[in-house]
Amino acid sequence: MNFPIIAPSVLSADFANLGTDIQMINDSQADWFHIDVMDGVFVTNISFGFPVIKAIQKIANKPLDVHLMIVQPEKYIKDFKSVGAEVLSVHYEACTHLHRTIYAIKEEGMKAGVAINPHTPIHLLKDIIQDIDLVCMMSVNPGFGGQKFIEQTYRKCADLKAMIEANNAHCLIEIDGGVNEFTAPKLLEAGADVLVAGNYVFASNNPKETIASLKNLSLHTK
Ligand code: DX5
Ligand code: ZN
Asked: Which of 28, 83, 93, 194 has the fewest CB atoms within 10 Å, i.e. is most exposed?
């Protein structure tokens, strides 16, 4: 796998022309589709659900990385598998029985991710770090695209990288929110593996070139 993994966030796509935007990502150097699911309870926004994800999956030629910003995500694990999720992330703050939920995701054959809000310290992941495939570190408060990047994420990302190495774990660090040409290089330096980008990609004049510029920031293999 070539790093960084680039995951454009479909939340910032043009929903009236979703097929065109999915095709653009297919034809780009992006690696994954980042799919944000919001329920209006865990976050104060509602995005889209199963029918839309299923429609995306029909034409997408890259893995769907699904980020659940919903309460009780354990209720819907099989449903997200059935609409094509390959990576499924649940929020630490939304799961009382996180370990059980992680293993339920893995049992369905998906990669299991844990997303953490900006205020959630990484040390809370210590006893689960070896069980998960990905940490989705929020670098904005979840709910909306196009928000300002929270600067302490660099330090948090470096700390998480150190924790992963100290525990001989293998999970990827995904950064979600406010990724752009200024924040991305510093995030890679701090140990990020996966960059989610919504507004930066879709508000640019040439989204395919913007994706390529992120992909080519630093290439290493794992
Ligand atoms: C925010 C979502 C993000 C969002 C990122 O709650 O989880 O994935 O789409 O958008 P940008 O890159 O515009 O900050
Ligand atoms: Zn997201």
From this structure: 93
